[in-house]
Design a protein that fits this description.
single chain; alpha/beta; Rossmann fold; Helicase, Ruva Protein, domain 3; 9 strands; elongated; binds S-adenosylmethionine
Amino acid sequence: MSSLDQLPPLRDVVAKHGLDPKKSLGQNFLFDLNLTGKIARAAGPLKGVTVVEVGPGPGGLTRALLQEGAAHVIAVERDERCLAALAEIAEACPGRLTIVQGDATTTDLGALVAKHNSEKEPSAEGQSSNLPARIVANLPYNVGTVLLTQWLESDAWPPWFDRLTLMFQREVAERIVATPEQRADYGRLAILCGWRTQARILFDVPASAFTPPPKVTSSVVELVPRGTPLPCDRRALSQIAQAAFGQRRKMLRQSLKGLGKDPLALLDAAGLEPTRRAEEIDVAGFVRLAQALSS
Ligand code: SAM
């Protein structure tokens, strides 16, 4: 039995440290070890991997990630009330958990991983080898899409992470993986995610699994960065998607006005009919429009 197994049940940890869930911080905790184990395994195999966890809270998923063999977990938590509970986990697995108190929306997670790598003991050959790194999180719903957008809009690509395994509300998960076939869900988020990653929904998690239960079902989503996304300027892609989906019911010849270039010339260069609407255009079509905008 590992010393992680000897930690008290999560409900006792929450009571001991007075972690009454705060809605403003999106605190819906997971206490079911089977479920946290399932999420950690979905992000795996974790042996030799550095995991960044956003919003560990009382540490249910953190424990599972360590139990599933993550070489190191860097846990970024905004709520300082959670730090003592997380310190107990760090004590149970010395040297494998770094706790960072801060707001993940303003924290450079890649820099935390780089710092961790630079502080590691060099290998027997005298080299400090960098482990693969990935982000795993039961995200606070109020900042989930903000964080995902920040990570995927990184100037550096391929990014420092090799995979994202993230829990969202089911409705957001559907917007992440949508294609033109799912018109109502297809939009700016799907364009960004589809351009730079391969995204899929892994499984749903019922509201009853959380304390307190949210109003909606959640889903765990996996996003694997594409090594070589179709080439285009990410700002141009974002501008095009914003204009097109800002008026999604209008034809593109109308919705693309205001970008500083003749919409008909843009559409012609991208090989698209001026009468098409945003929700009919696949990611490759948006990339061609972005290329035309920035050419
Ligand atoms: N991982 C825990 C679990 O699964 O039980 C808690 C998940 S709870 C949905 C979201 C967590 O994110 C909370 O612990 C909350 O305090 C934290 N959080 C909220 N906003 C944050 C932010 N901007 N940066 C870092 N953590 C944040």
